[in-house]
Amino acid sequence: MAEAALLLDDITCTFASRDDASKGYTAVKNSTLAIAPGEFVSVVGPTGCGKSTLLNVGAGLLEPTSGQVKVFGEPLKGINKRAGYMFQGDALLPWRSALDNVTAGLEFAGVPKDEADRRANEWLKRVGLGGFGNRYPHQMSGGMRKRAMLAQTLIRDPDIILMDEPFSALDIQTRQLMENEVLDIWMAQRKAVLFITHDLDEAIAMSDRVIVLSAGPATHPIGEFEIDIPRPRDVAEVRNDARFVELHKAIWDVLREEVLKGYAQQKRV
Ligand SMILES: Nc1ncnc2c1ncn2[C@@H]1O[C@H](COP(=O)(O)OP(=O)(O)OP(=O)(O)O)[C@@H](O)[C@H]1O
């Protein structure tokens, strides 16, 4: 692979154990994961296995216990400034309008208000919120809030986009609309994407490559699948594609056992 946009190299993350601080819990162990510039990679794995931990390491929000992160070949120190993040929960500031939420990152970066507003209005249009810039988060539906968050993430034009189950709270129709919108934007801009999801269908429909993680502790990649389905794809229609069905079966064969292990572990906790 040419130089990776994001390389997680031999990452191990050990957290202090809740019950016994001297013991520690190794959530992720010796995990290596590389995303090429312009590549869309999804990571799937059982609940609690360490997906968010890996994403936080890539974002520079969590320092690994061992291993190294490289961003376009440069060792990462502190926050990953070339990445934009979109997390599961609501990240909008309730006291700011949609427009002012979208401009927030630019304002912190010192972009003049006029310029920030102009760019935010363009992004609001691109995500289907043209004309809704003056709405406050409580005046928007869950889908509208997600669109605003997407604009908020993309307006800074990050080279790497990190998404942690961004649409899991949405109903299936809104979710598919959002997924298609993300794919349209990604097709036009081709940024490196690391997409975390529980949903194997979503992972296959969106990605160039799907990486399967083992159940924890000591989570690591145990399978990697090229998604050789032509683009552009419609996330709803692609599910009927014969190759989609074949890939789904192959990945599920690897994932199934890990999901069962992960479930058994959660029941024990
Ligand atoms: N700061 C922390 N301190 C202690 N343990 C942690 C910390 N962060 C995560 N963990 C533990 O590490 C493991 C992996 O957590 P993580 O959130 O990365 O999993 P996940 O795969 O993203 O979960 P989910 O699928 O439920 O979103 C879990 O057992 C979690 O309890």
TrEMBL record:
A family per Pfam: ABC_tran
PROSITE patterns: ABC_TRANSPORTER_1, ABC_TRANSPORTER_2
UniProt KW NADP keyword: no
Gene3D superfamilies: P-loop containing nucleotide triphosphate hydrolases (3.40.50.300)
SUPFAM superfamilies referenced in this protein's UniProt entry, alphabetically: P-loop containing nucleoside triphosphate hydrolases
SMART domains with a match to the protein in the record: AAA (SM00382)
Keyword ATP-binding: yes
Keywords: ATP-binding, Cell membrane, Membrane, Nucleotide-binding, Transport
Start and end residues of each ABC transporter domain: 6-240
GO molecular function: ATP binding; ATP hydrolysis activity
InterPro entries: AAA+_ATPase, ABC_transporter-like_ATP-bd, ABC_transporter-like_CS, ABC_transporter_ATP-bind, P-loop_NTPase
Family: Belongs to the ABC transporter superfamily.
Entry protein name: NitT/TauT family transport system ATP-binding protein
Organism: Paracandidimonas soli
